[in-house]
Amino acid sequence: MKSLKIAFVVGVFPAISETFIVNQIGALKEQGHQVKIFCTREVNKPPVINPLVTKYKLLKLSTEFTPNGFLKKGKGFLGKFKILLKSSGTKAFFPLLKTFKYLTSGNIDRTNQQFFKVYFKYYLVVHRFDVVHVHFADNAVHLLEQLKRFNGKLVVTFHGYDAHNYPMDFFKELHGLNHINYTVNTNYIKQKVIQLGFPENKIQVLPVGLDTSLFKPECKSKKDSFIILFVGRLIPLKAPLLAIKIVEQLIEITDKKITFYIVGEGDSFFECKTYIEQNSLTEYIHLLGSKSQVEVKKLMDSSDVFLFPGIVDDRGHCEGQGLVIQEAQAMQVPVIVSDVGGMKEGVLDGITGYVLPTKDIKAFVDKLLFLKNNSERRKEMGENGRAFVVKNYDSRFLSEKLVHIYQ
């Protein structure tokens, strides 16, 4: 297989909530492809670093991709001349060469500004990337000048955020670029993107995946308590408060040997904290804040059920895929989710977990109680879940499909 030179365009990198991008880049590098990461906002240095970021030295492969970022890294005459030579044989050569005309009047600052303005527009051409892959379609809109000039393979991936937050008119100019292929993580998001005016024949469903060799269970030890886990940003569409109310009702009808761990930060954190305290649930329900991937894996390894009762929020937004649902299944943890958005596409109802009507607290409580009282069923569902995820969501398998799209 030919090694491809791939430009990944993202907003902020690395983002704690976007481990799927790191997984995808890691899998491509394992296949021998060259990857460079371009950030339309900033290169981030979060307190919690994904192990794959360190393993593949991804921060060293990341650069700020903005006009100001280019000017801040301004090179002297020799540096500009090297860039000009590199552009030889591409359509960037003459536009770059023309900027040197300002030197005849001794206007060095004007030369710098014009040179790097043109260089920014033609960067992807100058450096001869085989593929440009843009994550989140709003980033593609912000880089229309670059994408219009690029003649190689172009892929834009829609996620839940961009498919929900922008009207059709926002993508008007993107519609005009006929050489772009689009990927989405679920059929739910595909329908959203079609509604935004993109042609169905240009859209392929490619879920975001995970490293199933990393997310694999260790030997589970016996526990006195039935452990339920929620992992995700604490925002309305992920319904952390609803999850608390579900577990509260379960506690009321059982022997109280229940522990509920909630991992994540977000706008709903203090609402959840207040509810837990006011309803005397601190003995059972624990807000843990953000955790590293390693810590999340350990929590999954000790959990009996993963609970994710997402809803459609007041803006009409809901979960596009929810990779954490596949992570839990890879760890052989049965999952219980609601039937909104794309979550249900990543669960085999009744086989790897349960897909239940949204906001139906009784239905969620009944299934939790059933699994609490049936350890053998939990074990069976867990084993089914891992087999399902290994077959359909492993990063290496999905990376091969992605490279096929690139080619």
Automatic annotation (TrEMBL):
Entry annotated with the keyword Transferase: yes
Keywords of the record: Transferase
Positions of the Glycosyl transferase family domain: 218-387
Keyword Transferase: yes
Start and end residues of each Glycosyltransferase subfamily 4-like N-terminal domain: 117-213
Recorded GO MF terms: glycosyltransferase activity
Transmembrane segments: none
Cross-referenced PANTHER family: SULFOQUINOVOSYL TRANSFERASE SQD2
Protein name, per record: Colanic acid/amylovoran biosynthesis glycosyltransferase
